[in-house]
Amino acid sequence: MANITATKMDLFGSKAVTETVLGASDTLTYKEADATSPVLVLRNPTAGPVSVTIDGDGGGSVHVPGVGAVDVSAGIVIGPIAAGAVEAVSLHAIKAYLKGTVTLTGGDGLAASLLEF
Fold first, then answer.
1. Which of 55, 62, 89, 98 has the greatest number of C-beta atoms within 10 Å?
2. d(CA 66, CA 74)
3. What mean pLDDT is predicted for residues 51-72?
4. Model pTM?
5. The pLDDT value given to residue 10
6. Gap between the Cα atoms of 112 and 43, Å rounded
7. CB of 62 within 8 A of CB of 74?
8. In the chain, which ranges are E strands?
9. Distance CA 3, CA 27 (A)
10. Cβ(70)–Cβ(4) under 8 Å?
């Protein structure tokens, strides 16, 4: 189990990005109160499509205006991500799924980068 390390991006210029190759189960740290705008980048260098489930262990039911109660306890599936493709996920956009310890499962072989702006 690897922890996906965040790369803090500068306002100007470029920066080397840390990639983590995902295994059966990996973690990342998400703090909703942070002033950063974290983006999880998932690159698929494998020969086939791969899906990954992102799930915080503190998720339950959340109220969505116009919809009502939505159960987020099973996490959110990103993908399938096609071979050679790259997906970017704004973590603030899926914050309801990220309460508690956040685990990524099923993404074997994906290269993950966590960027904080």
1. 98
2. 21
3. 93
4. 0.93
5. 84
6. 6
7. no
8. 3-4, 6-8, 20-21, 25-28, 38-43, 50-56, 61-64, 68-71, 76-81, 86-90, 102-105, 111-116
9. 5
10. no
